[in-house]
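Example 3.2
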Amino acid sequence: MPVIARALDRRLAGHRIVLFLFVSAFVLFFLAFREGVDRGYHHDVGSVGPFTYAVAALHAQNVHGIDGYVYLAPALGDTANVMTKALGWHWADDWRNSAAWVDEDLGKAFGQGTLPPPANTLEAPYDGLFPVGWGMDIGYVDFIDLAFALFGHNLASLYMAFFTVLLFSMAVFALSYPRSVIAASALVFLAAGLFGLIATNPDTFFLAHSLNSPNNPRFL
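Structure, written as tokens:
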């Protein structure tokens, strides 16, 4: 009996360690989320070029019914600055400090209902259909589409979607390895690393590596 009791004690102690590690991981996760909000990362465009092209592609898809990760290029050029102005959006000039404008423009752009596609995309004010490019992954378009579907057409939806997907992944991982100290420790390291990245002074890390926000596709 003493042998069995000691074995049970060791097993219970192991379960307590695993539980403590999993709880620690999720506490660090929520601290990282809160730290990002306190620093205003939920209202940061992240990277104006990829964000503009992705939103333009979703606008062509959801408003004009043009699928295939393409956007209507303005006749004056397809740089992010020109595109935002041609579409009536305002965030290109001061995109790091224009979260309110971004939300307002997104609401107008996606709140106008379905419109027919242009009769001719090769004439002014357009210069053809361009594929999403400029070195960006079309997965970023899918991510923004998911974020808008879950949390609405606003900038904070990207931040919320990032943490929602990560939280879901962490929960599935924890449920898959409920008794593994190694798995629980790995989750702690992940959450601690995320908190460390977000809590880092942006002048010394985030901006230096173009990772100014979890909304930035380079961060994703």
